[in-house]
Design goal:
Layout: H1 17-27, E1 35-39, E2 42-46, H2 51-65, E3 72-75, E4 80-82, E5 87-89, E6 93-97, H3 98-101, E7 112-113, E8 119-123, H4 129-133, H5 135-142, E9 147-152, E10 160-168, E11 171-179, E12 184-186, E13 192-194
Parallel strand pairs: 4-7, 8-9
Antiparallel strand pairs: 1-2, 3-6, 4-5, 6-8, 9-10, 10-11, 12-13
């Protein structure tokens, strides 16, 4: 068993600051392809990803949908709220119950609670790799996201896919990694094996 923890950084927004940040985030006119996240008490813009990123996301969605339970959906650029930390992040893929996304009382552009996700996926780029491996790893564990899949073609060992699971006390207790080209099996509720040889290097 592998214990995985990322260093805690920053702070949660103070009283009233979160509401201000969220209102500002909702009102942003972000350039096409860019994403805005709330992290460490400020709004940060994330630039558009490389085309390899889109190819990887498409291959992942195709594989996940093959065995995905009917009540779950896969969504891109969907905001998730990390309540314990006052963060609003936009994972590359979010697997959520469809009923939450389709709820009639949901507000437009409102983030979903990360704790409701069944799986979050980050696909690294040259500018996001360090954050995906550390701050987001720690944030998703703190939010009790059951599965975090990191697709990291910039790993120093070579392109890797790592599945983090079993979040406890702000850390993932398990981390299973395979190099691109080797299959990675996902547990319940997915019952599928990811063919990582389809991920562009």
């Amino acid at each position: 068993m592998t214990a995985v923890r990322a260093a805690e950084r920053g702070r949660a927004p103070r009283d009233g600051e979160w509401e201000y940040l969220l209102r500002t985030w909702r009102g942003l006119n972000v350039p096409e392809g860019w994403r805005a996240e709330i992290d460490e008490g400020q709004i940060a813009l994330v630039p558009p990803p490389h085309r390899h990123h889109h190819a990887t996301a498409e291959a992942l969605q195709y594989s996940l949908y093959a065995e995905l339970p009917a009540e779950l959906g896969i969504y891109q650029a969907l905001g998730v709220h990390i309540a314990p930390l006052g963060k609003l992040l936009l994972p590359d893929l979010v697997v959520l119950p469809r009923v939450l996304v389709a709820a009639e009382d949901s507000q437009d552009n409102a983030p979903f609670e990360a704790a409701d996700a069944r799986l979050l996926v980050e696909i690294t780029s040259g500018t996001t790799a360090r954050t995906d491996r550390t701050r987001k790893l720690w944030a998703y564990a703190r939010a009790q996201v059951p599965l975090y899949l990191l697709v990291d073609r910039f790993d120093e060992r070579g392109p890797m896919v790592t599945l983090y699971s079993d979040p406890q006390d702000g850390m993932y207790k398990r981390g299973e990694g395979v190099p691109f080209g080797q299959p990675l099996t996902l547990p319940d509720p997915f019952h599928t094996t990811l063919p990582t040889e389809k991920f562009p290097r």
